[in-house]
Amino acid sequence: MRGANERQTERARRLRQSDNDAEALLWSELRDRRLNGFKFVRQVPIGRYFADFACRDERLVVEVDGSQHQIGSGDARRDKFMVTNGWSVLRFWNTDIFNDRAAVLETIVAVLEKRLVREVRNADLTFIPRGEEEMSQASKLASRPAPHPNPLPAGGERGRDPMGALAGAIERNGVPSPRARGEG
Q: Are 44 and 115 in contact (CB under 8 A)?
């Protein structure tokens, strides 16, 4: 098991302590699963970069940009790195956080709920979905049958729903499950 990278941890700590006002305001809406139950973390290291906010479960990075991002700040390189490593990137301007926070939050929810899935690049918003190659690999994995007809849940205990995994694996292969046939 690998340990924590102390340098990255310390840098993330410093970045969290120096949040700008827009980041602090957005964090107050994202923290503690306040946004539709999605868990966000802030100043999370992804490779050599630090994401302002990230929803690990949905592989979404949310960046809050100030005026320093208007002049060749390397955002394109950073975005490409994150996207090729399986993260979608959503960028907002500081002013949008202050002036139209409800629209910002709705946009984040739209991405998380897969209502916004296509790339958007305009003056107000940038959304870059994770790479097509990575998404096609994920869909291949999702369509594979489970390696065991009744695998243990993530916690290692036998589930409260013992037929759930089997039914899902069977239905993914085009055969109606016992539940679908009314037998389970």
A: no
Choose the weakest-confidence range: 17-31, 103-117, 146-160.
146-160
Q: 26 near 64, Cβ under 8 Å?
A: yes
Q: Per-domain residue ranges for the chain? A: 6-136, 144-184
Tell me the pLDDT band of 109, cut-offs 50, 70 and 90: very high
Q: Which residue has better confidence, 13 or 88?
A: 88
**Residue among 74, 46, 76 nearest 60 (CA):** 46
Query: Beta partners for 61?
Result: 54, 89
Query: Between residues 12 and 106, which one has the greater pLDDT?
Result: 106
Give the orientation angle of helix 21-30 with respect to helix 101-112, to 10 degrees: 50
CATH number of 6-136: 3.40.960.10
pLDDT digits (tens, 9 = 90+) for 42-82: 999 999 999 999 999 999 999 998 865 454 568 889 999 99
19, exposed or middle or buried, with CB in 10 Å at 0-12, 13-18, 19+?
middle
Do 44 and 50 form a contact (C-beta atoms < 8 A)? yes
